[in-house]
Amino acid sequence: MIQSRFTKMAFASMLIGSSLMAGYTYNANSLLAVEGGYTYATADTTAVNNYKSHDSNLANLGLKIGAETDNYRIFLGARYYYDIDENFDYLDTYGVDIQYKFNFSRASNFFIGLGGGVAKAKLTFDGENFDRRISDGYYNADLGFNIHMGDFTDLELGGRYMNIDAHNIKNNTDLHFNGMVTAYASLIFKWKMD
Q: How many domains does the chain have?
């Protein structure tokens, strides 16, 4: 089911990307980006007469490939999150981001974007003697600045809010993710499409 959902999302992003690129191929660039950042994640566990809030501090590393025109940008990406607090054994996300760029100067631009994908995680919270596994969809919104470091390199500084639509019930305890807030930087390499 998740592979089917991811396949549909990838196909839809290719259709959207190709329609965005139509008529703009002379100004289009291919993109490859390496991303690093800090993420703050919150989740709640609820059982009979017991409610707990769990906070996690995560470092993340990602790889993104994509394309851009003068005003639009699309990325397919994968991100790995390392849990500093050791609640998560692993947390990975795979998805697509579509961004609109506001070109207000030659040195930089501002962008806003939306995205979505699949999050996979294995985690254990304090007080639980079992682990939980999720594989659920997410959606996100991001914004930030691209600083042009030359014709072939950009430095992207941004913020992202991600909502993972995950519930997990185990041992009569319900886990619900509230969201993840990320501050990140990406080094983006650009080259002209043929």
A: 1
CA distances from 14 to 75, 98, 137, 172, 188 (A): 10, 11, 19, 41, 20
Token digits for 101? Answer: 């760029």
DSSP state of 128: -
Nearest to 76 by CA among 60, 99, 103: 99
Mean pLDDT by groups of 10 residues along the chain of 194 residues: 53 54 66 97 78 87 96 96 84 96 94 96 78 91 96 96 86 83 97 78
Q: If we measure between CA atoms, which residue out of 157, 137, 144 comes closest to residue 113?
A: 144
**In sequence order, what are the residues at sequence separation of 6 or more whose Cβ sits closer than 8 angstroms to the Cβ of residue 30?**
65, 66, 67, 190, 191, 192, 193
CATH of the domain at 54: 2.40.160.20
Domain that holds residue 90: 2-192
What global pTM score does this model have? Answer: 0.81
